[in-house]
Amino acid sequence: MEIEKVYYIALDIKTRLKFEFMEFVRGDTLNKISFTITNNGQKVKLSDYAFKILLKRPDGQIVQSSPTVVVDKLVYSIGTTELEKCGLVIGTVEIYEGLDKITTKNFTYRVVNSFNVENMLDSETEYPINEITNYTHTQVVPAKIWTVHHTLNKKCSVIVVDSADNTVLGDITYIDMQTIEIKFQAEFSGKAYLN
To answer: Rg for the chain (alpha carbons), in Å?
Structure first.
């Protein structure tokens, strides 16, 4: 048994078309829209009519197709051409009796991109969970200038607190990717939190 994405639309010739939001993924196959067609609430004998579906893709290209009648439903199998461009697709169901067009009903659906698995990263390899991303420097001896050495290998954001846990502002100079110098207006001891 194949897995298909099927949306069901109740299309009444005399009333406004109501349907759920439809979304298809670009490049997917096995997508269908199944129409139940009625005339003022009464089922229509589909074999008495001809049907055409026109779709306007987001790039303006018009795609024409003929749906098939399956029992008492009109089934439209969406091809990959219809899902080639992402964005809003405007569809039209045209109903004919002989050469005469009886009515036209519009519907819409959205085409979205899927993830590109060719460029997928392995998170454990590329971004190890146990990588050190924070560092705490403890300044035991009160000083106006703190020199902080760390192994984070980046320009870190820094929060400094004194021994009473009050936030203190200072001038930060990045000496290199592993050394920071912080200058304060007065000597004090405390901690610098880096990340």
So the answer is: 33
What does the CA dihedral 109, 111, 112, 118 come to, rounded to 10 degrees?
Answer: 150
pLDDT tens per residue, the chain (195 residues)?
467 889 898 888 887 766 678 899 988 888 999 999 888 889 888 988 899 999 999 999 999 999 999 988 999 999 889 998 999 999 999 999 888 998 888 889 999 987 655 566 665 555 555 567 889 999 999 999 999 999 888 898 899 999 998 989 999 999 999 999 999 999 999 999 998
As a whole number of angstroms, the distance between CA 64 and CA 83 comes to: 13
Contact 43, 15 (CB under 8 A): no
CB-CB contact of 27 with 83 (8 Å):
yes
Tokens of 186: 């007065």
In the chain, DSSP assigns E strands to 5-12, 23-25, 31-39, 42-43, 50-56, 62-65, 68-70, 73-78, 87-97, 100-112, 135-149, 158-162, 167-168, 171-176, 179-194
